[in-house]
Design a protein that fits this description.
- This protein has 90 residues and is mainly alpha-helical.
- It has one domain.
- It is 42% helix and 9% strand.
- The protein has helices spanning 23-36, 62-85; strands at residues 12-15, 40-43.
- It has a two-stranded parallel sheet.
- Strand 1 (12-15), helix 1 (23-36) and strand 2 (40-43) form a beta-alpha-beta unit.
- Helix 1 (23-36) packs across helix 2.
- It is elongated, with a radius of gyration of 18 Å.
């Protein structure tokens, strides 16, 4: 019988893409952090940009594409966390 149960202090890892399908994971992470007082670390993976060929006659600077997509992902994840877990969890 276990009598001395210690709650780990490592952060809870939340993986989300900021889309509706991840809302349940955000909700669970928020409840876990409330009950354990552990911090949450959020991970979102930015996939590669769409392939653009030279047929269109223009070149899109790759650094700009990555920055814009990264900023959009970050904004989407922050909006999701605020909407699902509450503004105090941002």
């Amino acid at each position: 019988m276990i009598t001395d149960f210690a709650i780990p202090s490592e952060p809870i890892l939340l993986a989300t893409d900021g889309l509706k399908d991840s809302d349940a994971a955000v909700r669970i992470a928020a409840r876990l952090t409330e009950s354990t007082q552990r911090p949450v670390t959020v991970v979102a993976v930015l996939g590669p940009p769409p392939l653009v060929t030279g047929e269109y006659g223009f070149v899109v600077p790759v650094a700009d594409v990555w920055k814009d997509r990264r900023d959009a992902l970050l904004a989407r994840v922050q909006k999701q966390i605020a909407a699902v877990a509450g503004p105090s969890c941002e």
